[in-house]
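@channel sequence for tomorrow's demo:
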Amino acid sequence: MPNKRSGGGLSPTQQAAKFLGVSVLAGAVMAGIAVPAFGALGLAAKGSVEGFDEIPANLKRPPLSQRTTILDNQGGQIATVYSRDRTVVDLKDISPYMQKAIVAIEDARFYEHGAVDLKGVLRALNKNAQSGGVSEGASTLTQQYVKNVFVEEAGNDATKVAQATQQTLGRKVRELKFAIQVEEELGKKKILENYLNITFFGQQAYGVEAAAQRYFSKSAKDLELGEAALLAGIVQSPSRYDPVNDEAEAKKRRSIVLQRMADVHDISQAEADKAKKAPLGLKVSKPKNGCITAVKGAGFFCDYVREVFLNDPVFGKTQKARAKVWNQGGLTIRTTLDPQSQKSVQQSVKDHVYKSDQVATAATIVEPGTGKILAMGQSRPYGFGKNETQLNLSVDGSMGGGAGYQPGSTFKPIVAAAALEGGKPATQVYSSPYEMDYPSPVSACNGARWDEKGVPVANENESEVGPYDMRDATAKSVNTYYIQLISDIGICPVTEMAGKMGVERADGKKMNQAPSIALGTQEMSPLTMANAYATFATRGTYCSPVAIESISQTVGGQKKSLSVPKTSCKRAMSETTADTINTLLKGVVEDGTGTEAGLGSRASAGKTGTTDERYAAWFVGYTPNMAGAVWVGDPAHKRRMVDITIGGVPHDKVFGGKVPGPIWRDMMSGALEGKPAPPFNLVHIPRPDTGKGDGGGDEDDNDDGNNGDNRGNNNGGGNGDNGGNGQPTIPTPSFSIPDEWTIGGNDGNNGGGNGNGGNFP
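structure tokens (generated this afternoon):
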């Protein structure tokens, strides 16, 4: 009597011998199952035997693709994403009813035969011969498992999937040889476990755990008799026996499974009859796949995390390699998203801008000193419907965003930082007339220069007439001051400073070497601007943005940690320069164009921005422990924000301080609630006597402080037309002023530009 191996069936060697010993019969059997026409039996049989030994002996079993879970920084679930919704579980975590049901209906002699069930083959051959077609198959559970491995390996490649499932003799022979190998390596229990984890149960559910959750909202270990019979019946044809779409057909199929379980004595006939009469008891959970399912409006952040994974070499040398890991799944990704900040961003966005408005808003918060992205949201939800979008308005084009938006005057602090680093004092005075031509020529990088004459630029209000120092010019967002400043120091120091602060164009192109960059004419993303301003908050240290804190991956039951991108921090400017900018921008929210963005007693600083023709409006601001950017505008760059209603509020003209400012205030207030309120390190900036009052004014009217009533005395900065040729009188400071802080009115003809006109506060 042949020796039986543990678990039943002949040994692999005996199986192979038996197969080869009846080669003609086996070939005919395989051909009979796969090919209805019997005329080719001889050739098919011959071919199958000759090719058997040429088939590789080792079946490659790729790790099963599973769902990936994305978490916030507190461990709360943001979303689940997957190419195949699957959670691999051990056999002990699968209901005994489920184990018995699948064996009973798919391969009742599973524990009695080896890789191939010759009795079943002969029975199928006989029936197929009588029908003249393929009315019955003879694949064992092991062979079915092997076929599913082929399908899994094919992934989403339709051609490979078709090859893995085609009804041909060659595939059947390969399937059989690999089944022999699997029986020897794994044994019956492991094969059953693998089969239940790999097979498709319909409704996007792969594996029994996902199926149990999909149809009954419970774990596979908790499945009752009727539930297990229903799932086991689905496997043969997931579309035909889908209980969600055809309850009657599914119920008939369940009864067949229950009766089969009774016939093989897994359950009593009474149990089967009782279960047949019971309702299906469905408690369907809809598929929750992708960033569209993200909570708290975090769909765009979820999408950004995916883009980081697919683009960062830390996850694989090539994009194909990274995509393979992502699609394989089984990842638990803990991100930097702060649920409190995210909730606050979404609430503020919802309160101020409706998704049906003609324009949209996008907002981002980052943590200074770490680069961690704490929140990311926008008014048009993540989706495919009306007033929805999949375009992430907060990020660069390479990361799922668009081409960006002109940041307007929010770029001016970068110009100021470059000037301060180059030795210009914050007391620097320029004539700053209401309107002027860009001075020409202006030096650029690598010895080049910008040279274009007769191009005008103007301030927002006619009352904004200099001379101004850097403090007032920043608070009032005076265009002509900053044009004179960049033309004085040159374009290259500004683009270099921008690079140190991580400021790049959203479309990936190089920054234009033109003086108009001082007015924010180069398109940026909100994430870029928020992270740049975080550099000021850290007293001059730039940290690259990061969205992922840690990743673990479960493969083959083993959990491992993956390396993740780390922030890169470097000094972009001196502490003194950053402290000076903080002092300047603190004035913007206290008595400048950004008063409506102020956070009360909490130290804050920021800058408004409104682009030429009002296609975009911004507020970018920060506290010592959070930095955020808010953009409002038409992503298509077609709707000017003039005579427009936003969030139910009509506006004659939209300014950075009037719509983005309040959004920023509300989102930051909620995000910072309960958190420390550290102060800035401020510096004393002496006030040169420009011959002007020092009121702040607001961008929405013509108030210009004291409106220049004392302008133009002999000790002032000149008459506002030529930049002033006199030396201003300096109030006696309470400390010694560094020698390099020379103060005076520079020639008003030292400005420059590129002809784009002016951008406003």
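heads up for whoever presents: The CA atoms of residues 30 and 130 lie 16 Å apart.
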